[in-house]
Amino acid sequence: MNDLFTPSLAAGSAEQIFVAAHVLVAFAGAYLGFLYRPALSAARAKALRTLGFVLLGLGVLGVIVGGARLAIALPAILATIITLLDVIVIAGSLYYALRILPGAEQVVAPRGRPLRGAQPASSARAQGSAAPADGAAARPAVPASGRRDARRAQKRRKR
Fold first, then answer.
1. Cα angle for residues 21, 26, 28 (degrees, 5° grid)
2. C-alpha distances in angstroms, 97 versus 13, 35, 145?
3. In this predicted model, which residue has the larger pLDDT, 90 or 134?
4. 22 near 66, Cβ under 8 Å?
């Protein structure tokens, strides 16, 4: 326990791996925070961008502490604290990705497939005005899309 609080210049391979790992974490954070844009979900894009900024901050902090530990006498507890912060961020991001993000994506995403040719109701229909006498004039010239519209058209033909 005393070794954690005693400043030491004895830097071994563990410190070099610590610095190299945090350089990679910083690059991954910069990529996620500034460059990567997923096209699938706005909730996922926001979560990955936030994760990128957190990784960038932890990576830079780890590189600073690891580099200073290699150059000057610093207690090993600083590297231990940053490693614990790394573990907390990993656990938090896994929890968010597995528990919270699926629910957030489901709230944002519409249910079912969007209708490609669906048109909004006309303003005359929405206001409740009388339909024209000619039934053909009331229908759009473009064939209706969607299952509901196809069933309505089939029922009209059967009458």
1. 95
2. 33, 20, 37
3. 90
4. yes
Q: Which residue has the tokens 């207690």?
A: 75
* Burial category of 23 from C-beta neighbours within 10 Å (exposed 0-12, middle 13-18, buried 19 and up): middle
Give the model's pLDDT for residue 112: 56
* Percent of the chain's residues with pLDDT above 70: 72
Burial of 112 (0-12, 13-18, 19+ CB in 10 A): exposed
pLDDT digits (tens, 9 = 90+) for 110-135: 655 554 554 555 544 445 555 555 55
E strand or H helix at 142: none
Long-range contacts at 23-26 (CB < 8 A, ≥ 24 apart)? 23/59, 23/63, 24/59, 25/55, 25/58, 25/59, 25/62, 25/86, 26/55, 26/56, 26/58, 26/59, 26/60, 26/62, 26/63
Amino acid occupying residue 128: G
Higher pLDDT among residues 153 and 117, named by residue: 153
Bin 64: left if φ > 0, else alpha if -120 < ψ < 50, else beta: alpha
